[in-house]
Amino acid sequence: QQQVKQSPQSLIVQKGGISIINCAYENTAFDYFPWYQQFPGKGPALLIAIRPDVSEKKEGRFTISFNKSAKQFSLHIMDSQPGDSATYFCAAREGGGADGLTFGKGTHLIIQP
Amino acid sequence: GAVVSQHPSWVICKSGTSVKIECRSLDFQATTMFWYRQFPKQSLMLMATSNEGSKATYEQGVEKDKFLINHASLTLSTLTVTSAHPEDSSFYICSARNQRGTYEQYFGPGTRLTVT
What we know:
The structure holds 2 protein chains of 2 kinds.
Chain A (H helix, E strand, L loop, with lengths): L3 E4 L2 E5 L4 E7 L4 E9 L6 E6 L5 E4 L2 E6 L4 E6 L8 E9 L7 E2 L3 E6 L1
Parallel strand pairs in A: 2-11
Antiparallel strand pairs in A: 1-3, 3-8, 4-5, 4-9, 6-7, 7-8, 9-10, 9-11
Chain B lengths: L3 E4 L2 E4 L5 E7 L6 E7 L5 E8 L5 E2 L8 E7 L2 E6 L8 E8 L7 E3 L3 E5 L1
Parallel strand pairs in B: 2-11
Antiparallel strand pairs in B: 1-3, 3-8, 4-5, 4-9, 5-6, 7-8, 9-10, 9-11
């Protein structure tokens, strides 16, 4: 059972455009939702994270939108750059912080110059 | 801050041998570390949770006798793949949970294991 569903699987965006990646979850015990960026052969790097008590969080060009009632959250990358080309994973964790992360299947993002 | 290292970065071993992978939190203490496995072009799958000073907790379907985990200090966890087989070839990534603040998990750079 896939607990975090991520879409699209791949995405091509023109330089300067907005990249949008979506995730949905079912487990209402999740209370922490991070996004990770991964380059080939490297470990994931934490980009930005949100908790369900806020609907939006922005850090630089990255924004998370969170819809608790719909159990959905998304990552928006503004002014996308070729250096943003990577695989992006959404994840979720149950309350308390003791558990490991449940990851979405990933989105391969390509920013065309 | 929040740097996690892994050693080795890649390893090739023969079928039937054992391989140890180290995970260290360099600038913070981590009573909890996690081990993930990632096959090519796939997502990360949690294998086990490593707690300092106690036995690891394994996810369903992960053989605890094959993947031995030791978390002997607040900054070091090790994963030993015993009697490795070609199907164990994968990218193994650890993460460490920061005990302070909001419990973010920071990932190491990963270890590429190839079993021939």
